[in-house]
Specification:
Distance between the termini: 66 Å
Radius of gyration: 21 Å
Strand content: 15-25%
Bound molecules: zinc ion
Number of helices: 11
Helix content: 25-40%
Structural class: alpha/beta
Protein backbone atom coordinates (compact mmCIF):
# COMPACT_ATOMS: atom_id res chain seq x y z
CA UNK A 1 0.00 0.00 0.00
CA UNK A 2 1.54 3.23 -1.14
CA UNK A 3 0.59 6.83 -1.78
CA UNK A 4 1.71 7.47 -5.35
CA UNK A 5 0.95 11.17 -5.43
CA UNK A 6 -1.74 13.66 -4.41
CA UNK A 7 -5.04 11.78 -4.23
CA UNK A 8 -3.62 8.62 -5.77
CA UNK A 9 -2.94 5.28 -4.06
CA UNK A 10 -1.54 1.94 -5.13
CA UNK A 11 -2.98 -1.14 -3.38
CA UNK A 12 -1.31 -4.54 -3.97
CA UNK A 13 -4.01 -7.22 -3.95
CA UNK A 14 -2.72 -10.82 -3.71
CA UNK A 15 -3.41 -13.32 -6.49
CA UNK A 16 -3.62 -17.04 -5.68
CA UNK A 17 -1.70 -19.62 -7.75
CA UNK A 18 0.27 -17.13 -9.80
CA UNK A 19 3.91 -16.14 -10.09
CA UNK A 20 2.83 -12.51 -10.31
CA UNK A 21 1.87 -12.50 -6.59
CA UNK A 22 -0.39 -9.45 -6.76
CA UNK A 23 -2.35 -7.11 -8.95
CA UNK A 24 -1.90 -3.39 -8.33
CA UNK A 25 -5.23 -1.65 -7.80
CA UNK A 26 -5.10 2.13 -8.13
CA UNK A 27 -7.43 4.28 -6.03
CA UNK A 28 -8.19 7.81 -7.25
CA UNK A 29 -9.62 10.21 -4.69
CA UNK A 30 -12.73 12.11 -5.81
CA UNK A 31 -14.60 14.94 -4.14
CA UNK A 32 -17.36 12.54 -3.07
CA UNK A 33 -15.55 9.21 -2.73
CA UNK A 34 -13.01 7.20 -4.62
CA UNK A 35 -12.61 5.49 -8.03
CA UNK A 36 -10.56 2.37 -8.67
CA UNK A 37 -8.69 1.01 -11.68
CA UNK A 38 -8.93 -2.83 -11.58
CA UNK A 39 -9.95 -4.81 -8.50
CA UNK A 40 -8.25 -8.20 -8.05
CA UNK A 41 -9.41 -11.83 -7.92
CA UNK A 42 -12.55 -12.85 -6.10
CA UNK A 43 -11.15 -14.38 -2.91
CA UNK A 44 -11.64 -13.37 0.72
CA UNK A 45 -7.92 -12.74 1.01
CA UNK A 46 -8.00 -10.33 -1.96
CA UNK A 47 -11.12 -8.64 -0.61
CA UNK A 48 -9.43 -8.10 2.76
CA UNK A 49 -6.36 -6.62 1.10
CA UNK A 50 -8.47 -4.32 -1.08
CA UNK A 51 -10.63 -3.07 1.78
CA UNK A 52 -7.63 -2.68 4.10
CA UNK A 53 -5.87 -0.65 1.40
CA UNK A 54 -8.89 1.58 0.88
CA UNK A 55 -9.08 2.08 4.66
CA UNK A 56 -5.49 3.35 4.76
CA UNK A 57 -6.51 5.94 2.16
CA UNK A 58 -9.49 6.80 4.37
CA UNK A 59 -12.28 5.04 2.49
CA UNK A 60 -14.77 2.24 3.03
CA UNK A 61 -15.93 0.00 0.15
CA UNK A 62 -19.22 1.96 0.24
CA UNK A 63 -17.31 5.10 -0.80
CA UNK A 64 -16.30 3.65 -4.18
CA UNK A 65 -18.05 5.50 -7.02
CA UNK A 66 -16.44 4.01 -10.13
CA UNK A 67 -14.81 0.67 -10.97
CA UNK A 68 -12.82 0.95 -14.20
CA UNK A 69 -11.46 -2.37 -15.40
CA UNK A 70 -8.62 -2.60 -17.92
CA UNK A 71 -9.73 -6.06 -19.12
CA UNK A 72 -11.74 -9.08 -18.04
CA UNK A 73 -8.99 -11.42 -16.83
CA UNK A 74 -9.87 -12.73 -13.35
CA UNK A 75 -7.04 -10.88 -11.59
CA UNK A 76 -8.43 -7.57 -12.86
CA UNK A 77 -12.16 -8.15 -13.00
CA UNK A 78 -12.83 -10.86 -10.38
CA UNK A 79 -13.94 -8.66 -7.48
CA UNK A 80 -15.87 -6.11 -9.56
CA UNK A 81 -19.23 -7.66 -8.64
CA UNK A 82 -18.52 -7.82 -4.93
CA UNK A 83 -17.26 -4.24 -4.83
CA UNK A 84 -20.27 -3.01 -6.81
CA UNK A 85 -22.60 -4.77 -4.36
CA UNK A 86 -20.87 -3.07 -1.44
CA UNK A 87 -20.91 0.40 -3.00
CA UNK A 88 -23.37 0.81 -5.85
CA UNK A 89 -20.43 2.00 -7.99
CA UNK A 90 -20.62 1.64 -11.75
CA UNK A 91 -18.46 -1.01 -13.40
CA UNK A 92 -16.89 0.00 -16.71
CA UNK A 93 -15.28 -2.15 -19.44
CA UNK A 94 -14.52 -1.83 -23.13
CA UNK A 95 -17.37 -3.33 -25.23
CA UNK A 96 -15.08 -5.94 -26.84
CA UNK A 97 -14.25 -7.44 -23.46
CA UNK A 98 -17.79 -7.02 -22.15
CA UNK A 99 -18.99 -9.09 -25.12
CA UNK A 100 -16.83 -12.06 -24.01
CA UNK A 101 -18.00 -12.18 -20.41
CA UNK A 102 -21.06 -14.38 -20.57
CA UNK A 103 -19.50 -17.12 -22.67
CA UNK A 104 -16.33 -17.07 -20.62
CA UNK A 105 -17.63 -16.91 -17.08
CA UNK A 106 -21.30 -17.92 -17.19
CA UNK A 107 -22.00 -20.43 -19.97
CA UNK A 108 -18.65 -21.78 -21.15
CA UNK A 109 -19.97 -24.86 -23.01
CA UNK A 110 -19.62 -23.49 -26.57
CA UNK A 111 -16.26 -21.91 -25.74
CA UNK A 112 -14.83 -25.27 -24.61
CA UNK A 113 -15.86 -26.79 -27.94
CA UNK A 114 -14.25 -23.86 -29.82
CA UNK A 115 -11.09 -24.31 -27.75
CA UNK A 116 -10.97 -28.00 -28.67
CA UNK A 117 -11.46 -27.27 -32.38
CA UNK A 118 -8.69 -24.67 -32.37
CA UNK A 119 -6.35 -27.11 -30.59
CA UNK A 120 -7.06 -29.75 -33.24
CA UNK A 121 -6.49 -27.23 -36.01
CA UNK A 122 -3.06 -26.28 -34.67
CA UNK A 123 -2.04 -29.93 -34.27
CA UNK A 124 -2.52 -30.71 -30.58
CA UNK A 125 -2.28 -34.46 -29.93
CA UNK A 126 -5.88 -35.76 -29.78
CA UNK A 127 -5.49 -37.13 -26.24
CA UNK A 128 -4.48 -33.69 -24.99
CA UNK A 129 -7.02 -31.53 -26.83
CA UNK A 130 -10.01 -32.24 -24.57
CA UNK A 131 -8.22 -31.69 -21.27
CA UNK A 132 -6.44 -28.59 -22.55
CA UNK A 133 -9.70 -27.16 -23.89
CA UNK A 134 -11.05 -26.92 -20.34
CA UNK A 135 -7.76 -26.06 -18.64
CA UNK A 136 -8.80 -22.46 -17.94
CA UNK A 137 -12.05 -23.45 -16.20
CA UNK A 138 -10.56 -23.33 -12.65
CA UNK A 139 -10.02 -19.56 -13.11
CA UNK A 140 -13.79 -19.10 -13.17
CA UNK A 141 -13.85 -19.69 -9.41
CA UNK A 142 -12.15 -16.32 -8.96
CA UNK A 143 -14.59 -14.24 -10.93
CA UNK A 144 -17.92 -12.94 -9.76
CA UNK A 145 -19.74 -12.67 -13.09
CA UNK A 146 -21.31 -9.23 -13.51
CA UNK A 147 -22.52 -7.34 -16.55
CA UNK A 148 -20.82 -3.91 -16.68
CA UNK A 149 -22.92 -0.77 -16.23
CA UNK A 150 -20.82 1.38 -18.54
CA UNK A 151 -19.18 0.49 -21.84
CA UNK A 152 -16.04 2.56 -22.18
CA UNK A 153 -15.13 3.41 -25.77
CA UNK A 154 -11.76 4.38 -27.17
CA UNK A 155 -11.01 8.03 -26.41
CA UNK A 156 -13.88 8.37 -23.96
CA UNK A 157 -13.38 10.87 -21.16
CA UNK A 158 -14.31 9.50 -17.73
CA UNK A 159 -16.37 11.89 -15.64
CA UNK A 160 -14.32 11.87 -12.42
CA UNK A 161 -14.17 15.19 -10.54
CA UNK A 162 -10.57 16.34 -10.10
CA UNK A 163 -9.21 14.01 -12.81
CA UNK A 164 -8.60 14.38 -16.51
CA UNK A 165 -8.90 10.69 -17.36
CA UNK A 166 -9.37 9.34 -20.87
CA UNK A 167 -9.61 5.73 -22.05
CA UNK A 168 -7.27 4.41 -24.71
CA UNK A 169 -8.23 1.15 -26.43
CA UNK A 170 -5.16 -1.08 -26.61
CA UNK A 171 -6.25 -4.49 -28.00
CA UNK A 172 -3.72 -7.32 -28.08
CA UNK A 173 -3.42 -9.01 -24.68
CA UNK A 174 -7.22 -8.91 -24.60
CA UNK A 175 -9.52 -7.72 -27.43
CA UNK A 176 -10.97 -4.95 -25.26
CA UNK A 177 -7.93 -4.01 -23.20
CA UNK A 178 -8.02 -0.40 -22.02
CA UNK A 179 -5.31 1.88 -20.73
CA UNK A 180 -6.28 5.06 -18.91
CA UNK A 181 -4.43 8.29 -19.58
CA UNK A 182 -4.25 11.20 -17.13
CA UNK A 183 -3.04 13.98 -19.43
CA UNK A 184 -2.66 16.69 -16.76
CA UNK A 185 -0.55 14.52 -14.47
CA UNK A 186 1.10 12.75 -17.47
CA UNK A 187 0.25 9.31 -16.07
CA UNK A 188 -0.56 6.08 -17.88
CA UNK A 189 -2.53 3.35 -16.13
CA UNK A 190 -1.25 0.59 -18.37
CA UNK A 191 -3.05 -2.52 -17.08
CA UNK A 192 -1.29 -5.58 -18.54
CA UNK A 193 -0.48 -3.81 -21.82
CA UNK A 194 2.94 -2.49 -20.75
CA UNK A 195 4.69 -4.01 -17.74
CA UNK A 196 8.21 -3.12 -16.58
CA UNK A 197 9.87 -6.55 -16.76
CA UNK A 198 7.59 -9.14 -18.31
CA UNK A 199 5.57 -9.09 -21.52
CA UNK A 200 1.89 -10.04 -21.47
CA UNK A 201 0.62 -13.16 -23.18
CA UNK A 202 -0.67 -12.25 -26.64
CA UNK A 203 -2.20 -15.35 -28.11
CA UNK A 204 -4.78 -16.58 -30.55
CA UNK A 205 -7.83 -18.13 -28.90
CA UNK A 206 -11.47 -18.44 -29.94
CA UNK A 207 -12.44 -15.07 -28.43
CA UNK A 208 -9.51 -13.18 -29.92
CA UNK A 209 -9.43 -10.90 -32.92
CA UNK A 210 -7.88 -12.28 -36.15
CA UNK A 211 -4.34 -10.97 -35.68
CA UNK A 212 -3.88 -10.18 -31.98
CA UNK A 213 -0.11 -9.66 -32.15
CA UNK A 214 -0.47 -7.07 -34.94
CA UNK A 215 -3.12 -5.40 -32.76
CA UNK A 216 -0.76 -5.51 -29.81
CA UNK A 217 2.14 -3.95 -31.73
CA UNK A 218 -0.21 -1.22 -33.03
CA UNK A 219 -1.39 -0.62 -29.47
CA UNK A 220 2.23 -0.21 -28.34
CA UNK A 221 2.62 2.47 -31.00
CA UNK A 222 -0.52 4.20 -29.74
CA UNK A 223 0.78 4.53 -26.18
CA UNK A 224 4.16 5.54 -27.62
CA UNK A 225 2.56 8.69 -28.99
CA UNK A 226 1.54 9.88 -25.52
CA UNK A 227 3.46 12.34 -23.39
CA UNK A 228 3.89 10.28 -20.21
CA UNK A 229 6.03 10.85 -17.12
CA UNK A 230 4.92 7.84 -15.08
CA UNK A 231 3.57 4.39 -15.95
CA UNK A 232 1.29 2.64 -13.46
CA UNK A 233 1.03 -1.02 -14.51
CA UNK A 234 -1.25 -3.66 -13.01
CA UNK A 235 1.65 -5.94 -12.03
CA UNK A 236 5.26 -5.64 -10.86
CA UNK A 237 6.11 -1.98 -10.22
CA UNK A 238 5.75 1.60 -11.50
CA UNK A 239 8.32 3.02 -13.88
CA UNK A 240 9.11 6.25 -15.69
CA UNK A 241 10.75 5.58 -19.05
CA UNK A 242 7.87 4.42 -21.23
CA UNK A 243 9.72 4.90 -24.52
CA UNK A 244 12.62 2.68 -23.42
CA UNK A 245 10.27 -0.05 -22.24
CA UNK A 246 8.23 0.07 -25.47
CA UNK A 247 11.44 -0.32 -27.49
CA UNK A 248 12.38 -3.39 -25.44
CA UNK A 249 8.98 -5.00 -25.90
CA UNK A 250 9.02 -4.39 -29.66
CA UNK A 251 12.57 -5.81 -29.86
CA UNK A 252 11.43 -8.87 -27.90
CA UNK A 253 8.69 -9.60 -30.44
CA UNK A 254 11.04 -8.97 -33.37
CA UNK A 255 13.41 -11.56 -31.91
CA UNK A 256 10.56 -13.95 -31.28
CA UNK A 257 9.32 -13.57 -34.88
CA UNK A 258 12.83 -14.31 -36.14
CA UNK A 259 13.04 -17.37 -33.87
CA UNK A 260 9.72 -18.72 -35.15
CA UNK A 261 10.83 -18.10 -38.73
CA UNK A 262 14.08 -19.96 -38.11
CA UNK A 263 12.30 -22.90 -36.48
CA UNK A 264 10.00 -23.02 -39.49
CA UNK A 265 12.98 -23.14 -41.85
CA UNK A 266 14.31 -26.14 -39.94
CA UNK A 267 11.01 -28.00 -40.05
CA UNK A 268 9.07 -27.16 -43.21
CA UNK A 269 5.43 -28.24 -43.21
CA UNK A 270 5.23 -28.38 -39.44
CA UNK A 271 2.11 -27.72 -37.37
CA UNK A 272 1.93 -24.78 -34.99
CA UNK A 273 1.94 -27.23 -32.06
CA UNK A 274 5.11 -28.97 -33.24
CA UNK A 275 6.74 -25.63 -33.84
CA UNK A 276 5.91 -24.47 -30.30
CA UNK A 277 7.73 -27.49 -28.86
CA UNK A 278 10.89 -26.36 -30.70
CA UNK A 279 10.93 -22.78 -29.39
CA UNK A 280 12.67 -21.57 -26.26
CA UNK A 281 10.40 -20.99 -23.28
CA UNK A 282 11.09 -20.02 -19.68
CA UNK A 283 11.13 -23.77 -18.86
CA UNK A 284 11.43 -27.04 -20.82
CA UNK A 285 8.36 -27.93 -22.91
CA UNK A 286 7.57 -31.02 -20.78
CA UNK A 287 7.17 -28.73 -17.77
CA UNK A 288 4.75 -26.44 -19.57
CA UNK A 289 1.45 -28.09 -18.78
CA UNK A 290 -2.28 -27.39 -18.74
CA UNK A 291 -3.35 -23.85 -19.46
CA UNK A 292 0.30 -22.74 -19.89
CA UNK A 293 0.58 -25.07 -22.85
CA UNK A 294 -2.47 -23.49 -24.45
CA UNK A 295 -1.06 -20.01 -23.86
CA UNK A 296 2.29 -21.05 -25.39
CA UNK A 297 0.77 -22.55 -28.53
CA UNK A 298 -1.63 -19.62 -28.87
CA UNK A 299 1.33 -17.26 -28.64
CA UNK A 300 3.19 -19.25 -31.31
CA UNK A 301 0.15 -19.02 -33.60
CA UNK A 302 -0.05 -15.26 -32.99
CA UNK A 303 3.55 -14.91 -34.19
CA UNK A 304 2.92 -17.19 -37.21
CA UNK A 305 -0.03 -15.02 -38.27
CA UNK A 306 2.13 -11.89 -38.18
CA UNK A 307 4.79 -13.70 -40.24
CA UNK A 308 2.06 -14.69 -42.68
CA UNK A 309 0.86 -11.10 -42.90
CA UNK A 310 4.45 -10.00 -43.60
CA UNK A 311 4.89 -12.62 -46.35
CA UNK A 312 7.34 -14.63 -44.24
CA UNK A 313 5.14 -17.71 -43.71
CA UNK A 314 2.36 -19.54 -45.53
CA UNK A 315 -0.04 -22.22 -44.33
CA UNK A 316 -2.10 -25.04 -45.74
CA UNK A 317 -5.70 -25.59 -44.78
CA UNK A 318 -6.82 -28.84 -43.21
CA UNK A 319 -6.34 -30.43 -39.85
CA UNK A 320 -3.81 -29.83 -38.64
CA UNK A 321 -2.78 -26.73 -40.53
CA UNK A 322 0.81 -26.90 -41.74
CA UNK A 323 3.25 -24.02 -42.08
CA UNK A 324 6.13 -23.23 -44.41
CA UNK A 325 8.43 -20.41 -45.29
CA UNK A 326 7.34 -19.18 -48.72
CA UNK A 327 10.72 -20.02 -50.28
CA UNK A 328 10.42 -23.64 -49.18
CA UNK A 329 7.19 -24.33 -50.99
CA UNK A 330 7.59 -26.31 -54.17
CA UNK A 331 4.62 -26.59 -56.48
CA UNK A 332 4.48 -29.93 -58.24
ZN1 LIG B 1 -4.42 -10.04 -18.28
ZN1 LIG C 1 -3.00 -9.35 -15.17
Amino acid sequence: MERVGPGLWSIPVPIPFADLRYVLVYALELTDGVAVVDVGWDTDEAWSALTAGLAVAGYRPADVRAIMVTHIHPDHYGLAGRLREASGAWVGLHPADAAMLRVRYDEPGPLLEDNRMLLERIGSPADEASSLASSSLPARAFVNFVVPDVLIEDGQRLDLPGWDLRALWTPGHSPGHLCFVEAGRRLLFSGDHVLPRITPNVSVHPQQRVNPLADYLDSLRRVGELDIAGVLPAHEYRFADLAARLAEVVAHHDERLAEVEKALAAAPGTSCWQLATRLTWSRPWEQITGYMRRAATGETLAHLIVLEQQGRAVRSGGRPERWWRPDQLTWT
